Batch of 4 targets.
Target 1
Amino acid sequence: MLAIQIVLVIMALALFVLFTQRAHTVRTQAVKRIGFVLFIFGGIYAILRPQDVNWIAHKLGVGRGADLVLYLLVVVVAFFAANTFLRFRNLERRFTDLARSVALSNAVVPAPRRESDALAAVETAAGAGSAGSDSAADTEVASEVGTEVGTEVGTEVAQPVPAGSGRQS
């Protein structure tokens, strides 16, 4: 096994462990920045001194310096792909949490019905009475509840929609 193969496999495994274990800690962010700066300086050095890159490549068992740069670039692209994936996954999780928070803060809780006790009494009286009750009894019960004669007991009353809730009334 060539020395470059060992170096590249160790680099790939180290990046994998680093980013799957601690993707967004301060220390990991610092390592990313330091690695980026080193990569930039290494690229500038390889451009200015290609004979040194060839020498390093021969010491690691690679035929040419360009091949060594290509191998390192493969590791860097894999790092970039893993980093981008983890960042998008974190953003998706944050957007989901934000959407849940907004949904909970904008939730409309129905107002309690004020005449619920009176309506329960009307329903009980209507259930206990005969099917052909007279209109005078209906008028009396309806006046106690505050509704008109002829409306069904227990029907939903439309609640006003709060302004800015985004719902149409």
Target 2
Amino acid sequence: MIKNDLTQKYNKPTIWIHWLTTILIIVSFPLGKYVEELEPIDKLGFLKIHAILGFIVLFLSIYRSYLYFKSPRPKDLKTGSVFNDKLIVWIHNIFYILLFLIPLTGIITMITTGYGDALLTGNINLIKPHEESLPLESHEILATIMMLTLALHIIGVIKHKILTKENTIKRII
């Protein structure tokens, strides 16, 4: 059985960013789903909150990426399965990609649909019809992939705990 060195931890800023970003994502996803069902006049306030949370996630992700390359970090977990070892790395990589793509598609959506101008002025008449907005559709699809990836991540942590009896969360708390 593989035993990982769980005394190796991420640095404090990375730990804080990890958990803060997790909370922001868990709040942003249902908020975004709620906002998409509202009429334009009702969605501006909620959309502003959603957009601010998205910008915070983007800035935290940029800083976390900087830390990723500049700071020491624990070795990748080993499970005893080549497939699972690669899956762990790919899930983490997918998170990093999504943490950039989701806010960027959100920004592009704000620009192309007029929501950005409407938020700045409070004038909902600046919102353009966007039923077939590719950036918005991409944003929604990527957000759904993020939630599925988050679920896989949580399942992986639980599975690792059950199969290897290792509490890998120690590395990020």
Target 3
Amino acid sequence: MRILLTNDDGIHARGINALLKELCSMAEIYVVAPDRERSGTGHSITVFEPIKASRVKLPGVKAGWVIAGTPVDCVKLAVARLIREELDLVVSGINHGPNLGTDVLYSGTVSAAAEGVIMGVPSIAVSLNSHSDKMDFDFAARFVRKAIKTVMKKGMEKDTLLNINIPFLPPQEIKGMRISSLGVRNYNNLFEERQDPRGNTYYWLGGGVVKEEQKEDSDVLAVQEGYISITPIHLDLTDYRLIEEYRKTFSEYLAKPDLGD
């Protein structure tokens, strides 16, 4: 089995290195990761400047590159150009902090896995629910290893990624695992206004998570209650429930070739 490891916290982050240590005995590992933290970059790609890629030596790795680009750049470049062999799996993470609910739209971690799916490779995103400097990634990495073995036996859907979020708890306190839906995850978008030494105004984004009511099967609730959450995410964002309704709403336009001035 060949696995591509990537992330949005940078190639030197503890999460990706815990995964590397755990998975190198079960698969041929390639690492293609950003040169620095790229959290919150979502599915952005680099199109107006060159993408620099440098080979790096990492223990237990078939080949590794550090990329001056986004997490999605890493996966696109890895699959399209850097890695000649066919990949069996992309694993993105382990992220420092959760990627729950609508976080997945902002997350570089989840977007890297989504790009794997776009390029035809089954993909998993993994996050640990803490930003502490004392985070222990060992249990999370061991769980990912078991999860990979489980899903690869059956075979993964190539058009759906798995988003895994693990509570930051001692292993004995984790209650189990839930297959979850995406919950509600909004923030107080507090923009602090500041001035630079030349008197120019700039803004610094802050704000915490807003507490909101969650569905019983949501990933947010699962992690809050001490369960590992696994959410299958499909990239087709179409709301099929509303297609027929909007065909009726716009029926007069659908019937006319002249749609306006």
Target 4
Amino acid sequence: MKEKHKEALTLLKTARGQMDAIIRMTEDERYCVDISNQILAVSSLLRKANLSVLKNHIETCVKDAYHDGTVEEKLEEVIRILNQYIK
């Protein structure tokens, strides 16, 4: 696996484990606030993973696009993602 994706993969695997725990908590009818707090924690992990992926994209694909003349297209992709991210 490429080194650049290790951080995102670790975050995603952690989120997956927490999701399984949230499902069990919900099935066990645990306290709603506890479930909600865990959902927020997973959301945070997913945001961090997404930022890690975008950072790597900028450092590799966008940087390479600068050299081959296609940087505008790559920047538009990043801007579209960031627009979705801040909604």
